[in-house]
Amino acid sequence: MSPTANGRFWRWYAKVYDLIWDSTLTAALCERAFGDLPTRRTAVDLGCGTGLTSRPLTDAGCEVVGVDLSADMLAIAERSGRVARTMLGDAASTGLPPHAFDIVVACNLLHLHPDPNAVLAEMSRLAAPGGAIVCSWPSNRASLTGTFVREVRSGRPVMDAGRALALRTAVGIGGLLTRARLHPSGVVDAAVSQWARACGATRVAWQEVMSSAVVAVFRTMPMPQPLGRATAPS
Ligand SMILES: C[S@@+](CC[C@H](N)C(=O)[O-])C[C@H]1O[C@@H](n2cnc3c(N)ncnc32)[C@H](O)[C@@H]1O
Fold first, then answer.
1. 42: which residues sit within 8 A by CB, 6+ positions away?
2. Most CB within 10 Å of its CB: which of 40, 53, 56, 79?
3. 214-227: per-residue pLDDT in tens?
4. Model's pTM, two decimal places?
5. From the CA of 48, how far away is ligand 1's center (Å)?
6. Which protein residue has the closest C-alpha to ligand 1 atom 14?
7. What is the mean pLDDT of residues 200-225?
8. Which residues line ligand 1 (CB under 6 A)?
9. pLDDT tens digit string along 100-151?
10. CATH number for position 147
């Protein structure tokens, strides 16, 4: 499939992205991904999309750089104030300075990227010593109807979840036609495990969220005090 067709897919997807993914599933994913992170200042979100996964970091006071290959996605991320700065480019070769970010994120990108190993290597390159590296990708139990049911059970209004189901179906068909999705979950699981072993990253968490997504958190050095849990000196 040509890059143009693929570009058109992401342009269209940007228009409906938040209607689908500004959801209880994404909220649960972000809670697992970022809930226990220590206080940090700088973050880069690779494949940031509209910035839904950058938003909790920005809200917590981080300065987030959002990197994405789609200008339409980045425009929404910037307009919504979910990122401080945007960069149009490939997640595997950002050209950003090495070891410059306290948190490096790639949520729902590795299964789409032609070379997930190259993205993981770039994440290691960008992470500051003692930094956190956070990835998520669809789990092998993810399904359209399963996600709908679990979102409704977790409090998403039925009409809202139903519209998201219809749009996810349309996006799935568009993704198949443009070959947007490249790797099954098992391939990403293996790539992330192998990368962590090879670079000695410490696994902090590896959890499934609402039977739909896997969230993995790593650190490059022992973590300091978690956010909001510091005790006042006596
Ligand atoms: C499924 S969305 C995930 C967005 C966001 N991280 C989230 O979880 O809500 C995938 C994003 O990756 C972007 N993307 C695809 N290939 C990319 C690449 N090679 N480099 C950077 N971004 C890419 C797409 O434009 C899209 O915004």
1. 62, 63, 64, 65, 100, 101, 102, 103, 128
2. 53
3. 999 999 854 445 55
4. 0.91
5. 6
6. 47
7. 85
8. 10, 21, 47-49, 52-53, 67-70, 73, 90-91, 107-109, 112-113
9. 999 999 999 999 999 999 999 999 999 999 899 999 999 998 999 999 999 9
10. 3.40.50.150
Position 230 confidence tier, pLDDT thresholds 50, 70, 90: low
80: tokens are 């919504």
- What value does the mean pLDDT of the chain take? 91
Residue corresponding to tokens 């293996």: 190
Strands 202-209 and 101-107: unpaired
Domain that includes residue 197, residue range: 3-219
Q: Could you tell me the distance, in angstroms and rounded to a whole number, from the CA of residue 9 to the centre of ligand 1?
A: 12
Contact in structure between 227 and 36 (CB atoms under 8 Å): yes
Instruction: At 227, give phi and psi (nearest 5°).
Output: -50, 130
Nearest CA residue ID for atom 13, ligand 1: 47
Is residue 152, in this structure, part of any structural domain at all? yes
Q: For a pocket test of ligand 1, which of 16, 29, 50, 68 has the largest count of ligand atoms closer than 8 A to its C-beta?
A: 68
**Residues belonging to the chain:** 234
